[in-house]
Amino acid sequence: MKTPLKMSGALTELVAQRFRLLGEPMRLRILQTLEGGEQPVSAIVEALESSQPNISKHLQALLQGGLIRRRREGLNIFYSIADPMVFRLCELVCSSAAQQTRARLVELDLPNPARRAPAGRR
Amino acid sequence: MKTPLKMSGALTELVAQRFRLLGEPMRLRILQTLEGGEQPVSAIVEALESSQPNISKHLQALLQGGLIRRRREGLNIFYSIADPMVFRLCELVCSSAAQQTRARLVELDLPNPARRAPAGRR
DNA sequence: CAACTATATAATTATATAGTTATATAGAGA
DNA sequence: TCTCTATATAACTATATAATTATATAGTTG
What we know:
2 copies of one chain form a homodimer. By secondary structure, chain A is mainly alpha-helical. Chain A is built from 5 helices and 3 strands; from the N terminus they run H-H-E-H-H-E-E-H. The first copy, chain A, has a 3-stranded antiparallel beta sheet with strand order 1-3-2. In chain A, a hairpin with a 2-residue loop joins strand 2 and strand 3. Chain A is globular, with a radius of gyration of 19 Å. The termini of chain A are far apart. Residues about 1-5 of chain A have low confidence and may be disordered. At the A-B interface, helix 1, helix 2 and helix 5 of A face helix 1, helix 2 and helix 5 of B. Chain A binds a DNA duplex through helix 4.
């Protein structure tokens, strides 16, 4: 069998491109920053402690990928999440990674680490 | 506010790594090939028409990322999906991309293209 | 229009990695 | 042990891209 695929080559390419967009920590952090609501570039730059051109470039990448939107207001440009799907993606990956890490712990027969900052005062 | 983040830096890094793993068309195609069940390396190489070392390298990457498993049987090594989450991820990305593309169509006021190979004979 | 501010782009450098070719390893069988 | 086969690894090349520095653009205010 040559092609047991569900996706065409072009579609696979497109999906890979999306994943690659999310495969950069700085871009994930930008998305996290926008999760609370729209932000001007300057606020993102400040929050992430990176250079303005670097943030701008990542914003353009996310914009082209359709993950964020922009809106002009005077001198400021506000960016916001266009496709909340990204957060579901992150949750999925995150919980899967967590579960795997816990499994590895069991596999190595190590005790569960104490939780940091356990609920409750004192 | 400096850190409005839900994820620690290390976790963000980990999640990005996972996404990057899925950001390569060849690796997506390997996963698609494995969707039907475990396969020896040789079968994957044949199905994807790539070189054996290249496939092997991608398999190691996916293995380290915990997305696939391996099992030896004589000279053959069978790989299989370890975490079916990847397919849910792909579906999410895929449907989001599709919807966006349709939206762009509307935005440009273009007519819907005819579906290829419509159901029904002749 | 000139000066200022926020953002975008260009040019560059450094690093990561996909793919190739050649070689190594590990198990099977004579 | 020698040979054969399946897979893995090493060394290399070519390409993509993240971050930086310098500059351009677009809107604002005087």
